[in-house]
Design goal:
The complex is a heterodimer of chains A (311) and B (242).
Chain A lengths: L1 E10 L2 E11 L4 E5 L6 H8 L7 E6 L2 E2 L4 H7 E4 L11 H11 L5 H11 L15 H13 L5 E5 L7 H14 L4 E6 L2 H7 L2 E6 L2 E6 L1 H8 L4 E7 L6 H6 L4 E7 L2 E6 L6 H10 L3 E8 L3 H18 L1
Parallel strand pairs in A: 3-8, 3-9, 6-7, 7-8
Antiparallel strand pairs in A: 1-2, 1-4, 4-5, 9-10, 11-13, 11-14, 12-13
Chain B lengths: L3 H13 L2 H25 L9 H28 L1 H5 L6 H32 L6 H28 L3 H17 L10 H9 L17 H27 L1
Helix pairs in contact in B: 1-5, 2-3, 2-5, 3-5, 3-6, 3-7, 5-6, 5-9, 6-7, 6-9
Classes of the chains: A alpha/beta (311), B mainly alpha (242).
Chain lengths: 311, 242
């Protein structure tokens, strides 16, 4: 459904997107992960026809994003990072405006269906300005869906709304995959894991990793990590002792405790507890450490730097 | 053109649902009414009532009203981020600009139409205005207003600040209005004449406003509108290439 080849965007001397290639099939949810400034928004803006690429090409549903821009735009629903709203319109007028502009025939039915879907049907006569932030987000989603696009592009749809609403938006996105291909950007790894079938990680305009969330985790963090907090250590230095535990690959001192990374496929918790008791210390806390995007990202970047130096 | 109508009606609704547009309309009609009454008062003993009194006032007044009606149009879309969605909708950039321009011109036409009712008052009180002059002056100021609005739209496309857009279009229109005064200090008569043909006044005060309908004046205003809309479209397009 989406085919991207060597897509590049330069702003003056700065390269925002550097020869990226990826594809997404029908009904797939593809996540684009990356820190701010990685090129997520630029990529999305090129695919929606907002701006042309400097180089490379991409097709959506077989239509080229430059040569057949109008056909592409008819097939895309787009929600920018900051939901664009007309505060003086009512909810229904707002959705109708976008439906008409995108050439929906007999829009009334689609409008009601989409408002029902995002649970705004009872607020249809309210002014957009009176909606809460979460409801505005849902209205933005309604606008994205009203012309029943084949491809839906959502730029960080869960930013700045409360946790309950984040869960709702994620559920809504999952729900979309039945009939649409979804491109979804975020910088929260756990979100990508819950929502996306596959993710690509962008850094400085390039794809640095690609795969399902589980694959990425497996590849970069084969072993689990645990966090321990120890009391009664006195002047002793526990790092060395901890490193000596069977199966521990790496020890890192953090504020208030230590992070222990295990060798792939090993549960080190029992050994850790035993060793700490043997040393006469008190175990205050032991919990698994969730791998975050920051971890994966830092690992990838540091690995890239190391490779560059090796060359 | 696909989308022009949708944009036009949205902007029209925007005018009629915003208190701000009503305030502008109220000020517009209040001032027009004031100039009408003072002209009427003069006509009691000095001259016959002048049906071009309101168009002549508007030839100056549009310097202020046109920017007020257009400064919001594109600057706010840019600021609110809705421009990003508009530019990814399956409509051309020109459809967006033309739709917005026609809407501003349409709102102005409605206001102008209301002031046209004053001519009926003149007929009713037996002042017998020169209807030929009235028609020429109204057609003239209608085109003149369109040209002013197109200038305003260019500045609205250029910036995301309404204030800057409004101020710059006022300054430009002022220059286009007063430009023929430069002729007063130019020694060369031909040059002064040329300068006058480039100003708004030069195509209104001595032609439409005195009841003369000349093709060159119509071409001037139509050309100005076309050129300004072309520039505005290019400015919007250039966003894609930055």
């Amino acid at each position: 459904m989406i085919e991207v080849k060597e897509l590049t965007k330069r702003y003056g001397n700065k390269t925002a997107v550097d020869r990226i290639s990826f594809s997404a099939g029908a009904g797939e949810i593809l996540g684009i992960l990356g820190p701010n400034g990685a090129g997520k928004t630029s990529t999305m803006r090129m695919l929606t026809g907002f701006m042309p690429p400097t180089d490379g090409s991409a097709t959506l549903d077989g239509f080229d994003i430059v040569a057949d821009s109008m056909e592409v735009r008819r097939r895309v629903g787009y929600m920018p990072e900051r939901v664009p709203l007309y505060p003086d319109m009512t909810v229904e007028e707002y959705v109708r405006f976008w439906a008409k502009l995108r050439g929906v025939r007999r829009p009334q039915k689609s409008i009601e269906a989409v408002l029902d879907r995002v649970q705004l049907l009872d607020r249809r006569r309210s002014l957009v300005r009176s909606l809460s932030k979460g409801l505005k987000q849902r209205l933005g989603l309604a606008q994205t869906l009203v012309h029943n696009p084949k491809v839906i592009i959502l730029d960080e749809p869960t930013i700045g709304i409360d946790p309950q609403q984040v869960i709702e938006v994620r559920a809504a996105v999952r729900d979309l995959a039945h009939n649409h291909t979804v491109l979804f950007s975020t910088h929260i790894l756990s979100e990508a894991e819950q929502v996306c079938d596959r993710v690509i990680i962008l850094n400085q305009g390039r794809i640095v990793a690609e795969g399902t969330p589980a694959e990425l985790r497996q590849k970069l963090y084969p072993g689990d990590s645990v966090f321990v907090q120890i009391g009664g250590v006195g002047h002793a230095k526990p790092e060395k002792t901890l490193r000596g535990i069977n199966g521990v690959k790496q020890v890192q001192k953090l504020a208030g405790g230590y992070a222990l990374e295990a060798v792939a496929g090993r549960d080190i918790r029992a050994d850790v507890v035993k060793r700490i008791q043997q040393a006469g210390w008190t175990l205050l806390e032991l919990r698994p450490v969730a791998v975050t995007l920051e971890d994966i990202f830092l690992k990838i970047v540091s690995r890239e730097d190391a490779e560059e130096q090796a060359e | 053109m696909n989308g022009v109508g949708v944009i036009f009606w949205r902007e029209m609704r925007g005018y009629f649902t915003s208190p701000y547009a009503y305030l502008i309309a109220a000020a517009f009609l209040l001032l027009a009414g004031f100039f009408f009454v003072s002209n009427l008062w003069l006509s009691v003993e000095q001259t016959p009532a002048d049906p071009a009194a309101i168009p002549e006032f508007l030839s100056f007044g549009m310097i202020f009203f046109a920017p007020l009606l257009t400064m919001r149009m594109l600057a706010e879309e840019t600021r609110e981020g809705t421009m990003e969605l508009l530019l990814t909708a399956p409509v051309s950039d020109s459809a967006i600009i033309i739709g917005k321009f026609l809407s501003a011109w349409g709102f102005y036409t409605i206001l102008l139409g209301i002031t046209a009712s004053y001519q009926i008052i003149l007929v009713n009180i037996g002042a017998f205005p020169d209807l030929g002059k009235a028609v020429a002056a109204y057609i003239g100021i209608w085109l003149y207003g369109g040209a002013c609005l197109s200038v305003g739209l260019v500045y609205s496309a250029l910036t995301d600040s309404q204030i800057v857009a409004g101020f710059l279009s006022m300054a430009t229109l002022f220059l286009l209005y007063l430009g023929d005064n430069i002729g007063l200090i130019v020694a060369d008569v031909e040059l002064a004449r040329l300068l006058r043909t480039l100003t708004l006044q030069g195509h209104f005060s001595t032609s439409f406003a005195v009841g003369i309908f000349r093709a060159e004046d119509v071409v001037f205003f139509a050309g100005l509108i076309t050129a300004m809309l072309f520039i505005a479209i290019r400015i919007v397009e250039s966003r894609r290439w930055r």
